[in-house]
Amino acid sequence: MMKNNLEPQLLKNGETVDLGLVESLGYDEFSRCLLAEVKAGGRVAALFGVPGVEKDDDLELYALIARDRHANLAVYRTEVGASFPSLTLSCPQIHLFEREIAEQYGVTPTDHPWLKPLRFHRVWQGQTDVWGRPLDTHPRPGDMEFYWIDGEGVHEVAVGPVHAGIIEPGHFRFQCYGEKVMHLEISLGYQHRGIEPMLLAGPHPFTMAQMETIAGDTTIGHGLAYCQVIEALSGCVVSDRAQAIRAMALELERLANHVGDIGALAGDIGFLPTASFCGRLRGDYLNLSAALCGSRFGRGLVRPGGVLFDLDAILAGGILTRIDEIEGNTLGALNLFFDEPSVLGRLEGTGRVSRSVAEDLGLVGVAAKACGVPRDSRFFHTTGVYSRLFDELVVEETGDAMARAHVRFREAVVSIDLLRRIGTNLPAGPVKAPVGPLQSNALAVSLVEGWRGEVVHVGITDAGGRLRRYKIVDPSFHNWSGLAMALRDEQISDFPLCNKSFGLSYCGFDL
Amino acid sequence: MLRVISERFQQGFRTGKFPLEEPTLPPRFRGLPRFDGECPSGCRACEQLCPFGACTVWEGKMVMDLGRCLFCADCPACPQGRIAFGNDYRLAVRGRHDLLYSGAAYPLAEPLEPARLKLFGRSLKLRQVSAGGCNACEADCNVLGTLVFDLGRFGIQFVASPRHADGILLTGPVTENMRSAVLDTYEAVPGPKVVIAVGACGINGGPFGLSPETNQGLGTLLPVDLYIPGCPPHPYTILDGLLRLLGKR
C-alpha cells in the first residue's frame, strides 16, 4: 500500500506559498490525501481548477484543506485530463466544487452522483461541455434534470427565479407529498456576473469595486478577504490601527445583518414588534458604517494596505456612544422575541439539520455553529486584533431554526462587546501602507469570518506577478445544501422560515 | 402583551420627518460631485483613469456620467484632484442624458406626465426585480418599508406579483441568466406602467458593465422613466426620486 503524502505545504491565514514548493501529486495520491485530511478533521475550504501555463497543458486542481485545530491550511495539487474520478461519494462536502470544475473547464468528475450545472454559463475554455450543451449559445438557466419523485399524491412545486419579496432570484423545486416536503432542489446561477474570469491578469483598476459587490451585504467581508490576498502576495504589512478599524467594520456588518435577520424572521413568524424594531435598528448599525466611511455598506473603507478612512478620537467616541444608545433597544427587541412562546413554538424543531449532516456537507458560519459544529475563522484562523480580543465562540446544539436565530443573537452581543474593546483602545499609527508588486508564481489564501460565515479567497500569480487564477468561496456556497436538507420532512409552509434562518446569499454563490 | 407595550414605549417613535425636514447624513457621505477649478487645457486624463468610463471631456469641461459613477471613496479619475463628492443626496433624474453632469444645475426628476400621474400619483405599486444585484440596492429598497421611512404613507408599496403592480423597479446589471425573466416580468405588468432603474448596475452595469455575462443594465432593454444613481443609492436618494416622480417634492 502506498503511503499517503501527509506532509504538504502548510500556510496560515493570510500567508503565501511559492508554487514551486507545492508538489504535484498523482490523482490517486491527491485523492487519498484529501480523504485522509477530511477523516482527520480537516475541511475542504476550496477546491478549484487552474489552467496550465501553456495552452495545451492539462488542467490542474488545487485543494486547500483547513486544519482548524492547527490554525493552518494544507495545499494539495494534481493534474487531470478530460476526466477524473469523483470523490463526492466518499466526501460529500466537495460535491459542488466538482460540479463547478466540470462547468468551468469541461472536465468530467466520473461517477459524480449529482452532476448538474451550477451557474449556467458557457465553458471557460476548451471545446467540451460536460452536458453536451451547444457551445455557441448561452446556456438557459435552470435547464437541467431536476430530481423528480413520482407516485399517487406526489406533486411538484416550482418557485422562482423572481420571488415575492425584494430578494435576489433563484429557483426552488419542491417534491411534496401533501404538505410534506420530501425533497427540495435549489438551482441558482441567475445572479452570475462572471466575476472570477474578470480577475484574470489582474488586479485591474475595477477589481476592488467588484470585490466589494461579490455580495453587497458582505462588502467588508469580501473586500477584506481580497485585500488580505493582495497584501500576502505583495508582502505588505498592515498597521495595527488599520487592522482594528477593519475589525470594527466587520463587526458592524455582522451586527447590522444579524439584527436585521432576526427582524426578518420575526416578520415571517408574524411577531411584528420585533420585526419593526429590528428593521430600524439594522439601519442604525448601517448608519454607523456610514459614519465611518460614508457608505452604509462599508464601500470604500477597506483597501489593499489598510483602510481609506481614519477613526479619530471624536468619531470613535461618537460611534461608541451611539452603540451604548442602541444596545439597550437591540437587547430589548431581541429578548422580547426570544421570550415569546408563540415565537419559540414556530422556531423550535423547525428545519433541523443534524451535526453529522452539517459536518458531511462542510457547513460553515451561523448554519454550522447552530448544529454544534464550531466553525469561526476569527477563532481558528485568527488575524489582527482578533488574536488578542476574540475568545467567545458561539455554538448551539439543536440545529433548528431556533438555534440559527439564537446564534445570531449571541453573536450580536459578542460583537457589541468587541466593538467597545477595540474602539476604546485603538492603537496609534498610520492606517495605510504602500502595496508593492505581487510575488510571482505564488499562491496566497485568506479567510475572513463574514457575518454568514467563512469567506475564502485564493489568489495564484503567474511569472509576471499578475493573477493567473482567483478563487472565491462565499459561505453560501456550502450552506445552500444545508437549507435543502433542512427542508426534508418539513411542511412547504415552513420554507420561508427555514430560508430566513439560513439567510444565504444568491450573488455570493453565483459570483 | 404588557411587555410588548412597555418595549414599544422604550423603543420610541422612530419615523423620520422626511420630506418635511431634510435628513441628516454623515459628513463622509458621498453625494452629488463638485468640480473645483478648471480642467487644464487639453487634459483628458480622466477618460482613461475612471475604471468605469464615467468621465469624458467635452469642450474643455469634464462631464461626469452619474449613471456610471460608483462614487468611489478613492476616485482615481482626476489627477488634478478636481472631483469631490458633496453631501447632496438628491440624484434621481428622468432621462439618461440628465445624468451627464458638468457642475451646472442638476436636472432633478420631474413628475410623470399628467395621464400617468393621475393614475399613479396617489397609489403606486411596484414589483422589484433583482437581476444580478449584489443585495445592497435591494436592501436599501427594502429598508424603505421600515418604520423609519414608512413608504406606505406616500401611497407607494412593493407588491408580490407583477400582476398587482403599476411598474417595475430594477436593480442589478441584468445578467444574461435574468434577461428573459426581467422582460417577462415587465410584460406581465398591465399597462400603462413605469420602469425605474436603481443603482449604477441597473443603469449601466456598474462594476460589471464589462462582463460578457451582463447586459449593461436596463440600457436598451426597456424604456426607463426614472434613474436613481449610486452604488448603492442612499435610501433617501431612492425615496426622494420616487416622490419626485409622483410630484410630491
Describe the structure.
The complex is a heterodimer of chains A (511) and B (249). Chain A has helices at residues 27-39, 95-105, 195-198, 207-212, 219-234, 240-269, 272-293, 313-338, 341-347, 355-361, 365-369, 377-380, 386-389, 401-423, 475-486, 495-502, 506-510; strands at residues 9-11, 16-18, 24-25, 43-50, 59-67, 72-80, 83-85, 108-110, 154-159, 171-177, 180-187, 302-303, 306-307, 442-449, 454-461, 467-473. By secondary structure, chain A is of the alpha+beta class. In chain A, the strands form five sheets. In chain A, strands 1, 3, 4, 5 and 6 form a five-stranded mixed sheet that branches. Chain A has a four-stranded antiparallel sheet with strand order 2-14-15-16. In chain A, helix 5 (219-234) packs antiparallel against helix 6, helix 7 (272-293) runs antiparallel to helix 8 (313-338) and helix 14 runs parallel beside helix 16. The two termini of chain A are 41 Å apart. Chain B is α/β, with parallel strands linked by helices. Chain B is built from seven helices and ten strands. Chain B is globular. The model of chain B has no long low-confidence stretch (mean pLDDT 93). At the A-B interface, helix 7 and helix 8 of A face helix 1, strand 6 and helix 4 of B.
